[in-house]
Amino acid sequence: QKEVEQDPGPLSVPEGAIVSLNCTYSNSAFQYFMWYRQYSRKGPELLMYTYSSGNKEDGRFTAQVDKSSKYISLFIRDSQPSDSATYLCARARYSWGKLQFGAGTQVVVTP
Amino acid sequence: KAGVTQTPRYLIKTRGQQVTLSCSPISGHRSVSWYQQTPGQGLQFLFEYFSETQRNKGNFPGRFSGRQFSNSRSEMNVSTLELGDSALYLCASSPGRGDRLIGEPIHKQETQYFGPGTRLLVL
Question: Do B112 and A102 touch (CB under 8 A)?
């Protein structure tokens, strides 16, 4: 069993819909939780990060961490075709130089 | 600033050979991490170098090794290639801890900037 579980999808939604992505994890000794976006033939790029539990909002994106349930979520409001990509959850203890990633969920937003 | 560059972008090797991949971090960044990405296993951490020292290591066999030079450029080497080594190898750089200012948000020093990767095919 992987330490960070993520449904690989694909997840197909119509333009304007809310995209809901989730990860579950084992071992609570991690403080930082991130979401990365990876376009085809590109490296991942950091979207958002959260320290410990709580919510964080950035424009159309909201990240949630529930440490009691060991659950990480990302919501994308008013989704656009340009949001079509693979979204990876990740976590780190203290230094971000060693990240543990989920498998990544492929999201397709159809016009 | 120029982004993280990786060379070569594509590589074909045969089983038993060895390969060296190169990563040039963003100017001023001192930390370089390497990851292997495959459809089955996703992104898996290989190792991290900071100021020419290996700071973290993942669960890969000793055939996988790396090093970092004084200019922060990094190389990784895979010896005795196996079919299962076919993957996208990504490197990421960050400024790294060391001179973080008090009260400075952590992402200023720790955010990993990924390169486009080297796609290795082992036949």
Answer: no
Instruction: For chain B, report the end-to-end CA distance as a whole number of angstroms.
Output: 37
pLDDT digits 0-9 by tens, B14-57: 999 999 999 999 999 999 999 999 998 899 999 999 999 999 99
Read off the amino acid at residue A43. G
**What is the largest distance, in Å, between two alpha-carbon atoms of chain B?**
51
Which residues 6+ apart lie within 8 Å of A37 measured at CB? A44, A45, A47, A85, A86, A87, A88
Work out the minimum CA distance from B44 to partner chain A, whole angstroms. Answer: 7
Nearest to A95 among B58, B90, B110 (CB): B110
**Contact list, B106 vs chain A (CB under 8 Å):** 32, 51, 96
Q: Given CB atoms, is B66 within the 8 Å cutoff of chain A?
A: no
Residue A48's φ and ψ, nearest 5 degrees, are -155, 160
CA A61 to centroid of chain Cα atoms: 10
